[in-house]
Amino acid sequence: MNNEVTIRFAERMSQLPPYLFGMINKIKMEKRWEGIDVIDLGMGNPMDPTPNKVTEKLCEVAVDPKTHRYPVAGGMKNLKREIALFYKRKYGVELTGEDDVICTIGSKEGISHLCLALLGPGDTVLVPSPFFPVHVYAAVIAGASVLRFPLGSEEEFLRQVSSMCQSLYPHPKLVMLNYPHNPTGTLASREFFVEMVKLAKRFNFMVINDFAYGQIVYDDHVAPSLLEIPGALDVGVEFGSFSKSYNMAGWRLGYCVGNKEMVGGLAKIKGYYDYGIFSAIQVAGIVAMRDCDEAIVEQVAVYQKRRDVLCEGLARMGWEVDKPKAGMFVWVRIPEPYVRMGSIRFSVEMMNRANVAVAPGAGFGEEGDGYLRLALVENENRIRQALKQMKRALVEIDQEVKAGTFVLQPDAPQG
Ligand SMILES: Cc1ncc(COP(=O)(O)O)c(C=O)c1O
């Protein structure tokens, strides 16, 4: 008798490419184990502290045994009410804070499970590219087909959605938006959202807007919420996150607000998967939402300075770069001749030669290849240092290319 068990994954697993950032992170961790100081511009993982008021509240509440029980699934009433008040205060949106708000274990979990609630085989989702991976793969895992199209200008975006809705049968079921956009830092105008809501009603599709960077906006620009558009509550939801606004990435706290049926669908599916978020974290989240507007302003000022140091430094190296209007990243095209390496090899070379971690644009879809995404999480001095080290690495590459020992192509020559 054969005692061996064959481990067989579900078919959906074959749809998932290796997580590209995993590879870069692995090299980073190996270097750090060796005691090498890697400057990390790779992941949007905030390094600045959570506001004191929030950590103090967590510590105070965490010692109360009542918080050690299973929490209220879907979020505490007071936190949901605070989220509704935030929407009223910032965007003039009227929410009850009951069946139109649900708390999630970070927005990524919420987006994933909402896709599972809304989508299945035979459904089509439209996602602009480049994209944050979960916006595509949550739909893929749910069994839906994903149609990607270049992000482009707002006009082009709307034209593409309209044309795909007319030509595809069955019509797309969902459009996945992410404004402010990761990785490009693009902001949507209010008018864009107005047109999107009109299209949603005309072609009967739902809309999700991932608003994780809604509060990280520079130079007096404003990021409108999808929900402030009349009629938006009929067609969609928006996801918010505590991770970026309040430097609470490890706490895993986010929320989904908007259309009650969609929120209800997420609540139903989450009911089978999880028991909610540690109550002490939820109580601390109330303090963040209620008392930490000033901390956000200070944090955005910090990111804006880092953005300027990084963009100006890259420009001095001869790179063409636009300062992002929002988000935590600089999205920049790798200049000639180095772009011939492709973004993955370029990133690996920067890690190996410069001890600088960057995110290869290819990790955000094919349309992102040729670009890098640089996170604004390291301080200004370390950003300057990273630029110096990258510059040195590029000089080294130039010399090797001249000597014929390095070929500018996506994969290192074998042998
Ligand atoms: C666009 C976008 N959405 C969602 C997330 C995940 O946020 P959370 O920590 O709330 O799960 C990220 C994190 O990098 C992100 O960039």
Can you give a write-up of this model?
InterPro entries: Aminotransferase_I/II_large, LL-DAP_aminotransferase, NHTrfase_class1_PyrdxlP-BS, PyrdxlP-dep_Trfase, PyrdxlP-dep_Trfase_major, PyrdxlP-dep_Trfase_small. Belongs to the class-I pyridoxal-phosphate-dependent aminotransferase family. Its cofactor is pyridoxal 5'-phosphate. It comes from Desulfobulbus propionicus (strain ATCC 33891 / DSM 2032 / VKM B-1956 / 1pr3). GO terms for molecular function: pyridoxal phosphate binding; transaminase activity. By secondary structure, the protein is of the alpha/beta class. It has two domains: 14-43 and 295-399, Aspartate Aminotransferase, domain 1 (Alpha-Beta Complex); 52-291, Aspartate Aminotransferase, domain 2 (3-Layer(aba) Sandwich), CATH 3.40.640. 45% of the residues lie in helices and 13% in strands. The protein contains 14 helices and eleven strands. It has helices spanning 20-33, 52-62, 77-91, 107-118, 133-141, 154-167, 190-203, 232-235, 242-245, 260-273, 279-291, 293-316, 342-354, 380-403; strands at residues 39-41, 101-104, 124-129, 145-150, 174-177, 206-210, 236-241, 254-258, 329-333, 356-360, 371-375. The strands form two sheets. Strands 2-8-7-6-5-3-4 form a seven-stranded mixed sheet, with helices on both faces. Helix 6 runs parallel beside helix 7 (190-203). It is globular, with a radius of gyration of 22 Å. 46% of the residues are buried. The model has no long low-confidence stretch (mean pLDDT 96). The structure holds pyridoxal-5'-phosphate.
